[in-house]
């Protein structure tokens, strides 16, 4: 099946909607809720969805495929490992040296296109280095929020230090290609979720 860029978006949105309905049905079954209640989307379930920027039909098809492959893989992982409420626009920006992402949900992908880069830029759309509370939680180049620190120490032991600067955090910030690998990717999403908790933006924009 061949899907155009907008078809892809609707497909992802449909999967998200199914996840919402399954979640609602599960919750209703657990509480003995009626079928009518099961039809209602669960108010607490959120997904990330994305679409390609307008004009994407004119992009080099090979580049468009690399972008959709990277974004699909990254979005699936975020939705599997966490619950985030965001609509993202992925743009191909050949003049962008690497890539960038903002809290508005806009991502520019330029010379760096990969799952690792997509995960990293999505983190920026979710508040990493971009939310106004970010800098308030960074002191002496360390993250001071309790949730992210607890999450890191679950991974790396009680003495682990969570480093952060104006825009980034590490470890698990996926700032470089050498930080790849499924377990690092999974931990990255968990860290982003915990940092959002610290910033008080869980399930918000
Ligand atoms: Zn970055």
Describe this structure in words.
This protein is of the alpha/beta class and 205 residues long. The chain has two domains: 5-125, no CATH class; 135-199, no CATH class. Helices cover 45% and strands 13% of the residues. The protein has six helices and eight strands. The chain has helices spanning 5-30, 35-39, 61-81, 115-125, 146-156, 182-199, and strands spanning 48-52, 86-92, 99-101, 106-109, 138-139, 142-143, 163-164, 169-170. The protein has a four-stranded mixed beta sheet with strand order 1-2-4-3. Helix 3 (61-81) packs across helix 4 and helix 4 runs parallel beside helix 6.
In short:
The chain is of the alpha/beta class and 205 residues long. It has helices at 5-30, 35-39, 61-81, 115-125, 146-156, 182-199; strands at residues 48-52, 86-92, 99-101, 106-109, 138-139, 142-143, 163-164, 169-170. Strands 1-2-4-3 form a four-stranded mixed beta sheet.
Features of the shown structure:
205 residues, alpha/beta, 2 domains, two-stranded antiparallel sheet, 6 helices, 45% helix, globular, disordered N terminus, binds zinc ion
Proportion of beta-strand residues: 5-15%
Which stretches are poorly predicted, pLDDT < 50 over at least 5 residues?
1-7, 23-43
Write down the secondary-structure element order: HHEHEEEHEEHEEH
| Gyration radius over CA | 18 Å
Percent helix: 40-55%
Individual helix count: 6
> Main β-sheet, in a few words?
4 strands, mixed
Compounds present?
A: zinc ion
Give the tally of β-strands.
8
Shape: globular
Give the number of domains: 2
Q: If you average the pLDDT, what whole number results? A: 85
**End-to-end distance:** 33 Å
Class from secondary-structure proportions: alpha/beta
* Order of the strands making up the biggest sheet: 1-2-4-3
């Amino acid at each position: 099946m061949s899907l155009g860029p907008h078809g892809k978006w609707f497909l992802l949105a449909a999967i998200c909607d199914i996840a919402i309905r399954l979640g609602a049905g599960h919750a209703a079954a657990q509480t003995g809720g009626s079928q009518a209640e099961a039809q209602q989307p669960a108010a607490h379930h959120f997904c990330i969805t994305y679409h390609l920027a307008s004009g994407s039909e004119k992009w080099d098809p090979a580049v468009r495929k690399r972008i959709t492959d990277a974004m699909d893989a990254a979005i699936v992982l975020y939705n599997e490992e966490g619950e985030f409420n965001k609509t993202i626009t992925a743009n191909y920006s050949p003049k962008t040296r690497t890539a960038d992402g903002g809290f508005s949900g806009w991502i520019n992908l330029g010379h760096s296109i990969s799952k690792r880069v997509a995960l990293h830029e999505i983190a920026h759309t979710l508040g990493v280095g971009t939310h106004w509370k970010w800098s308030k939680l960074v002191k002496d180049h360390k993250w001071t929020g309790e949730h992210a620190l607890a999450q890191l120490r679950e991974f790396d032991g009680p003495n682990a230090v969570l480093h952060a600067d104006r825009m980034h955090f590490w470890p698990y910030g996926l700032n470089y290609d050498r930080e790849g690998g499924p377990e690092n990717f999974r931990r990255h999403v968990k860290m982003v979720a915990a940092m959002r908790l610290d910033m008080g933006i869980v399930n918000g924009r």
